[in-house]
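queue> pop job 88
queue> type: inverse folding (structure -> sequence)
queue> payload:
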């Protein structure tokens, strides 16, 4: 049994994809059948220094592959909390021949938290959103796209106001 921090779960039709942070400080991904039984073995999407500096995993399914994003504070001395991601093939392996993991989605100054990701069929890309405190003192919502080839677009301010904007969700 794994100790799981903020897991991400997505339905694929015949089963599920799950992303989680077990003991050992690796972000893992696994496929589950319709009854929740693991298919094969988990794969590592990323590595962090502490479970207390990572979490808030979100997972999306495009109809043919998976994408995950998470909060990661591996650069806590430089940029604080950042958003990282990974792409997985439909068979659960890391996409791009095993290279499309630990992708930097946002490593702007100050803290980025609470990522969410969804597939945009009309855009043919994944869309990630998150809380961002890069200009403080208020938190705003930023977004970026992630192509199936692992290309991350420039971060774009999505929601701002006179107060903080928090806890984005996307579907």
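queue> result:
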């Amino acid at each position: 049994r794994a100790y799981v921090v903020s897991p991400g779960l997505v339905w694929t039709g015949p089963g599920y994809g799950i992303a989680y942070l077990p003991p050992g400080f690796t972000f893992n991904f696994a496929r589950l059948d319709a009854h929740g039984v693991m298919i094969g073995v988990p794969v590592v999407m990323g590595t962090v220094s502490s479970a207390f500096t990572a979490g808030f995993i979100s997972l999306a399914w495009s109809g043919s592959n998976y994408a995950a994003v998470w909060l990661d504070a591996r650069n806590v001395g430089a940029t604080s909390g950042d958003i990282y991601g990974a792409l997985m093939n439909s068979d659960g392996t890391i996409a791009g021949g095993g290279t499309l993991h630990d992708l930097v989605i946002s490593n702007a100054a100050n803290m980025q938290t609470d990522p969410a990701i969804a597939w945009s069929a009309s855009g043919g890309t994944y869309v990630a959103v998150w809380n961002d405190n890069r200009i403080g003192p208020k938190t705003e919502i930023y977004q970026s796209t992630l192509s199936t080839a692992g290309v991350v677009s420039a971060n774009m301010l999505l929601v701002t106001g006179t107060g903080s904007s928090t806890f984005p969700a996307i579907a």
